[in-house]
């Protein structure tokens, strides 16, 4: 692979991108509002399929660095993609189109008797020897080498409950909460160990910030009571322990979590990448405990709107949550692959033009 250089320079900044994001994670005020454009729009822009990026380290690094240079922003993405760890363990997925997420076709845990098989596979997992996971760690190392110390590499990991859904099947896990609750607890206890070890391997390979998400435990899917019993204890134990190790952790509560923010704000995260919220309200109510990231609408505005729509909504987000620091400008979820490039640029330009702190 030819040497890839980071050349992005939008303005004269006082802080590096890494310093800026870590300042937000500590609820401080950086020189300007950081910008994260999480998504795979860059893959289409540079002419690659998702499958190609999953399988080719050099193409993956080319797209991440190229996207940073072409569009801007304050980080790149390394690490694993959704479903990859569970596929290594034995669940079977298919990608229905050239995008994420993959669809679960055959879960590893089809009956409680398969728990022993899962435990055996987890115990025998060698990250550096298995082809898929070794590739992920290798591309993280190459990506960090390419961007250097001032651009943070963000790596996604799964929350225990989400990972359990991808090993058992989401609907079946929901049924298990009524019919076989011990299974839900046992699987997550094993997954906490697995994902903790994997996180440590990612950080050793060059990851600067950990991102996790959970679209399977919002208020549309399970009650707050079930969240408290089946999800919160394991997320809190795992992510608080990782935070205590010195790791920086961002969490994307995908969907509507408005009835359980007091719980997720107690789970060890530094920053919440918020979705279906009133941004001013969430900053006012919880900005003293966590940083806030978001929440320009991915579909209505970024995918379907004009560049001017994106710019105006980005400015509104800055007005609602930017005061005093502790805020990152971005979309409310993963930016779709088909998003017009000019719309991504409009959000980033709004951040540079209206997100600089004075004094």
3D architecture notes:
- The protein is α/β, with parallel strands linked by helices.
- The chain has one domain (38-291): Alpha-Beta Barrel (TIM Barrel), CATH 3.20.20.
- It contains 16 helices and ten strands.
- It has helices spanning 17-25, 41-45, 50-55, 57-71, 84-89, 115-123, 131-147, 160-168, 170-179, 181-205, 224-244, 261-264, 279-286, 298-303, 307-321, 341-354, and strands at 35-36, 76-79, 92-94, 103-106, 153-158, 209-213, 248-252, 271-273, 291-296, 327-331.
- The strands form two sheets. The chain has an eight-stranded parallel β-sheet, with helices on both faces. Strands 3-4 form a two-stranded antiparallel sheet.
- Strand 8 (271-273), helix 13 and strand 9 form a beta-alpha-beta unit.
- Helix 9 packs across helix 10 and helix 10 (181-205) packs parallel to helix 11.
- It starts with 16 loop residues before the first helix and ends in a 5-residue tail after the last helix.
């Amino acid at each position: 692979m030819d040497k890839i250089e980071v050349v992005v320079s939008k303005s004269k900044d006082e802080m590096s991108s890494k310093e800026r994001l870590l300042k937000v994670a500590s609820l401080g005020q950086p020189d300007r509002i950081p910008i994260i454009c999480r998504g795979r729009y860059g893959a289409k822009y540079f002419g690659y399929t998702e499958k190609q990026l999953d399988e080719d380290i050099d193409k993956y690094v080319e797209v991440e660095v190229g996207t940073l240079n072409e569009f801007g922003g304050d980080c790149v993405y390394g690490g694993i993609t959704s479903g990859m760890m569970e596929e290594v363990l034995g669940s079977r997925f298919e990608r229905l189109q050239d995008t994420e997420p993959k669809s679960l076709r055959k879960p590893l845990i089809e009956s409680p008797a398969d728990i022993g098989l899962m435990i055996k596979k987890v115990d025998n997992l060698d990250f550096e020897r298995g082809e898929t996971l070794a590739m992920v760690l290798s591309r993280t190392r190459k990506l960090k080498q390419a961007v250097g110390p001032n651009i943070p590499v963000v790596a996604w990991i799964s929350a225990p409950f989400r990972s359990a859904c991808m090993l058992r099947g989401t609907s079946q896990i929901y049924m298990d909460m009524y019919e076989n609750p011990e299974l839900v607890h046992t699987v997550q206890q094993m997954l906490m160990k697995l994902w903790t070890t994997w996180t440590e391997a990612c950080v050793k390979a060059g990851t600067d910030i950990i991102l996790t998400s959970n679209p399977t435990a919002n208020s549309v899917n399970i009650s707050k009571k079930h969240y408290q019993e089946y999800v919160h204890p394991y997320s809190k134990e795992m992510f608080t322990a990782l935070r205590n190790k010195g790791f920086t952790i961002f969490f994307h509560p995908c969907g509507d979590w408005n009835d359980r923010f007091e719980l997720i704000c107690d789970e060890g995260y530094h920053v919440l990448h918020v979705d279906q919220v009133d941004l001013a309200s969430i900053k006012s109510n919880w900005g003293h405990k966590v940083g806030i990231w978001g929440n320009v609408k991915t579909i209505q505005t970024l995918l379907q709107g004009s560049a001017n729509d994106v710019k105006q909504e980005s400015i509104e987000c800055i007005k609602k949550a930017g005061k005093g620091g502790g805020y990152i400008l971005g979309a409310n979820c993963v930016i779709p692959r088909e998003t017009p490039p000019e719309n991504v640029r409009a959000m980033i330009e709004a951040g540079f033009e209206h997100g600089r702190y004075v004094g």
